[in-house]
Sequence to fold (286 residues):
Amino acid sequence: MSTSRRPRAIGISRSPAYSPLQHATNDRAILEATLSELESRGWSTGYLREQDVVSAALPAAELYLNMCQGSPAARALLLAEAAGIRFFNRPSSVLRCHRQRLIPTLLASQIPFPPTVLLRTDRAPDPLELQALAQLDGGPLWLKRGGVHAERADDVRQIERKELASGLARFAARGIRTAAVQAHVAGPLVKFYGVASGAFFHAYLAESNAPVPRHLADLETLRALAFLAAARLKLDVFGGDVVFADRARPVLIDLNDWPSFAPVREQAARAIAGYVHAARPRGALR
Fold:
């Protein structure tokens, strides 16, 4: 590539279907802020919607900032990824974040994760699934849709065991074929955001959006857990949720690709742009 031409980065926005409520505005804002930061570093930029990559070829660019979450878009981009085109995040990593893939990966790892059972929604649990469900703690459970993380607020909700059948039926009626049933973990819920290689990390209490007190949680242990989990999925830009069963034992309960970073958008956009800029093609923007 000639160094006389500015390298080009194209952002691919998330479909509003996967950004419920205020997330649509916040998701678009972090992508636009990151593109703006890249422009300040000498890049030219462009913008596509998730539905655009399903129906048309990608326009030329050195790299793509990929916020797509739906399977059709991620699968449409897999061939480009296989051809060596650089994505942040990779389409293959986005697909690994879909719960029917994410949960087996985390359960098979050494990462602390609650006991979780994946179920089909269009039939009653089979004997092995019933046995696995019986091994979950006797308290409340979390019922989560399979596939993408959320389209509606009730795609993740706490239930009593007697509500499981009706919850699965509601998912089935919406065409959601898989669901995750997860044991409840008691303790403070902490949300985190990160950018690979330690470029950025931020955590806060989910209930109050306040900083995490050091007497409540070991932040270095949390940081190590978050980056380990992201590395397992090969995520560049990520977020998630942990519960501190005790101060030194964070339990990961969810991990997702490219969240909105709403509480720390400006700092995150600079960090993401810096990380992307460092991966620029050799000879570009020295």
Summary: The first strand starts at residue 8 and ends at 12. The chain has a mean pLDDT of 92. The two ends are 13 Å apart (CA to CA).
